[in-house]
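Appendix B, record 7
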Amino acid sequence: MLRNREVTRALIVSLALAAACALVTATCCGSETLPWVLLAGAAATVPWLALTRQRYRALARLSRNIDAVLHGDRALDLGSMNEGELAILQSELGKMVSRLNLTAEELAREKQMLADALADISHQIKTPLTSLSITTELVRKSLAARGNCSDEVERLRRIEELQLRVENLVSALLRLARLDAGALSLAHDPVDVAGMVHDAAQPLAIAFDIADISLVVDVDEGCSFIGDRAWTAEALENILKNCMEHTPAGGTVTVEAHEDALACRIRVTDTGPGIADADLPHVFERFYRGGRGADEEQGSKVNPSGVGIGLSLAQGLITAQDGTIAASNARDASGAIIGARFDIAFFKAIV
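Structure tokens (predicted):
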């Protein structure tokens, strides 16, 4: 209580006034009255201190109750309410907590309803797509049995490619919707970065070979962070796919990771033409597609099937784990742009 400057000042002023009154009384009535006047001043100060201490205890109790609410308690203790301005404050806080609880419950119900609706939508969409996939496979076998149907087979292959694009687009949109709704359940476990990078790169191995692009992985031993391995691998896969699609044949995509006292840092770079200055502020925007790289004369390769979802989804998945991601242009020693660079950081909790 005495650490409060206002209380200390008030106590000093009270004692100073008591001393001044004692001196005046001693001057007027004699020095024999001085001890009695000082005693009376001190006695007058004691009830004030007791009342102040009682109010501080009430404020401390109210502070503990508010702290409990902030840490998940859904009720504010109103059992010790009395008359006075503190009781009014406590009553208003109770009303606020009750209202916040109702709002939180409504949001939880809406999120659950949205999650259920997304699950239904996913099921309803995937069912006809699965049937279409089976049908195209049967048609392929029928054409193969007939022979000499190269044109039909090529058309069928094109249909299958479009079908795969639709499936991937639907899956990505559903994941984005779940992420926006807060219905995506993310784990909070230790993640081995080397294993996570392997999970992200494995689905793209054939695509890297076909595109004649090398994938280089340089991860420090024991590098890890607290998060969700599967969803982080999903985010990294989208970044690797984006880098691959914008790197010319014979190029390289590099994944580096190291851990320091503050964070686990993952860097992805490619040897493409880089990101145009006009596109840099927008690379993580949903459905945004930059037209060319930083150097149009190098013939930047833009994926015609991309719709601008991958990097947005990657950013959402990383920030949902309290991580950060930034995009920039990689440069060589002379300062020339040699490709895009994505920096990811998962910060450690400071105890």
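Remarks on this record: Helices lie at 5-29, 34-70, 85-146, 150-181, 193-201, 205-211, 229-245, 310-319. Residues 157 and 342 are 34 Å apart (CA to CA).
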